[in-house]
Amino acid sequence: MIQEVISSLAPQLTTGLTDKFNLTSEEASGAISTTKDTLLSSLTRQFGYGDVNGILGMLNQGQNLSSNAVYTGFISNLTSSYSSKLGLSPEKSSMIANFVLPKILSAIKGDRSKDFDKTDLTKMLGSALGDGVKSSAADAIKKGIGSFFK
To answer: This protein's superkingdom (predicted)?
Structure first.
């Protein structure tokens, strides 16, 4: 679900990144790709820590997200990724993270009239993790089945 949301937002995010932050279209594309990878990694890590309520709080909070520890952690992770992977300054990276993440969370929430619950989160992460496992398996097959046994 998360990959699909980010992909559907890509044109809007690209426009915002190029217009507001003077990124080239190539840099904007890199930022979107980095966002996908970093958010999936961050969500998976938080879920692995057992912080389901923290993730649900972020998804359901709506306003004033800066008071949510999971949200601020995700902003920090995105900022770090933009700096290290794209070579952007920490200041610019932080501004981009604060531009991108609220838009993604708003799109995930969409027009839902009810809050996300643990079942919704499990489905969302299961889908993302399943895609990752499928991708890893496909890569391993391409490299040769022997890579599974190394």
So the answer is: Bacteria
